[in-house]
Amino acid sequence: MTVFRTLLLALLAAAAGWAAAQADRSPPWPDRAVNGQYWLDATGKASLEAARAAFAANQGQPAEPNRVMPLGSGAGLWYRLELPGVTQPVPAVLTISFPGTDSVELFRPDGAGTWRSQRAGDSVPVNQWPLPYLKPAFAFNLQPGDSEATYLRVQHTHPIRVEWQLWDANGFTADAKAWHLGLGIYVGFMLLVLMLSIVNTVSWRDPVHLLYAGHVVLVGLSILALTGLAGEYLWPDNAWWNDKAAVVLPAASLGWAALFVRELVSERGGRLVSWGLLVLSALGFAMMVGVLLLSRGTFFRAPSLYLVPGMLLILGILAWYSRRRPEVGLWVLAGVTVLVAGSLWPLVRNLGLIGHSFLTDNGPQLGAALEIPLVLIGLYFRGRERRDSRVRLEALSHTDPLTGLGNHRVLMLRLGQLLGRARRDPTLGAVLRVRVANLHLINEEYGREAMEAAMVRAAECVARGAIEGDTVARDKGGDVVLIMEGQPARSQIAETGRNIIARGLKFSRRLPRGVTLHIHVAAACAPLPVVDPATLMGLLDQELVQIAADPHGRAMRILVQTESLGTMREDERGRVPRRA
């Protein structure tokens, strides 16, 4: 949980940075608003003189910042701005709200009867802008008594809102620092999640974390491209890519998100879900290729037509997945829902359905920041489930599924280790092979379920005779074997065997009424025979066969290795009836 607290603190810091970036700083002039008129140049080739003549002929119309302007097809949009008057020279900055505007050109009188032009936008490398920044920005001085209007020409591949904001230089600098702080914190947050996802990929051995790391990187790059930070710092010399990245990266992000969700739900998903996500991913990458090869104008509606249905499809699949695995699915669904909700604000604004607000500017950033801890919690639960499943599977490879004891593989391994140590020190170890003599009778009279209960009861009887370091395992033939470590005395071995036999004769709720276990024990004590594990188990099996045929009804025998390498057999009373 320490990691999640760190992520939460980073998220709060990022939110504070964005909130600070939105702080309202009043300029040194009383009226901050900039009124203007616009005139549409359908050809896109009108000069400044032609635009001034059009405005002089009253062809201009009042500018409405919330209106989507009919740009595209090479058209140019001219604005005549009436800047506020000042009583002393004031350094000012005019910014255009949409970072991805193709071309913005500002015309200001230079005081000598001519006009000075400044140009910014995606058609110009950011490092060649008059003021390299997140979005088109122009610096100039407001002088007392300025009477000439300022003209602005905007061109873009498709209709957009054209909004501007006038700052004094100090207010602009403070706002720029706050924005860079907030976005810088987000970048650090993204890198932290990237490193955490890579570590989780290795530690959990789950590729879904690597896919999520790619998703975080692509979402982060999309945010940086849409806010303009990537253009300012990552590719300031490449105007072509700066123009394409705002469409290519979000498409790649959604395409990669489809692959991430496909990996997440693959354990429960059917073929239709899997193929649907693959098609969604392929469409995203196809759109990327189309945008890279053709103009953005050809594909300007494609993001909305692809992103919105694609996000809804992913949400639907995650909702379906959450019904099957709620502990994982609900967290991931909540995270992706927050991301989708944040991304929809600018899309709805571009459609002209809502006006400018904090969420239209910052919804994607906030959604992406909130998504990360939510999805990471879901992936944590998924990793824990997979780890527990791996532990259970590994345990099954070493455990007998009926009794919970070690299986034949464990038995042979531990027995081989004991025999290896016994060759170096003949005083070590003892082996008891235990068989339920009446197991087949219980099966015939009471059925398979009762027989399995008898086997479990026999395992309990043997396990109670083990101490720390001993091994209790079930042979593949059904017998239970106790491997005693250390240097147990012969009397201890005999007592352990007798206790096992006695426990089997006691009443147990596991067994049908009146049924007890008739247990036979064959034991080998130090010095153990110098043989391999399979041969030793064969010797003990022969002893059990002879116990079953013993006319005196003896239930236990102990093999003793003699100095001449012969084998003596002792019954449970300690007598030596015959030599092998």
Structure described in brief:
The chain is an alpha+beta fold. Helices cover 52% and strands 16% of the residues.
**Total domain count:** 3
- Annotation, overall tally of beta strands: 18
Q: What is Rg? A: 40 Å
**Can you give the helix content as a percent range?**
40-55%
Q: What's the total helix number?
A: 15
pLDDT average, as an integer? 83
In what range is the share of β-strand residues? 15-25%
Major sheet details: 7 strands, mixed
Strand order of the largest sheet: 13-14-12-15-16-17-18
Structural class: alpha+beta
Distance between the termini: 66 Å
Which CATH class of the largest domain applies here?
Answer: Mainly Alpha
- The CATH architecture of the largest domain comes to Up-down Bundle
Provide structural commentary.
By secondary structure, the chain is an alpha+beta fold. Helices cover 52% and strands 16% of the residues. The strands form 4 sheets. A 7-stranded mixed sheet has the order 13-14-12-15-16-17-18, with helices on both faces. Strands 2-1-4-9-6-7 form a 6-stranded antiparallel sheet, with helices on one face. Strand 13 (471-474) and strand 14 (480-484) form a beta hairpin. The radius of gyration is 40 Å and the shape is rod-shaped. The model is unreliable at 1-6, 16-26, 563-568 and 571-580 (pLDDT under 50).
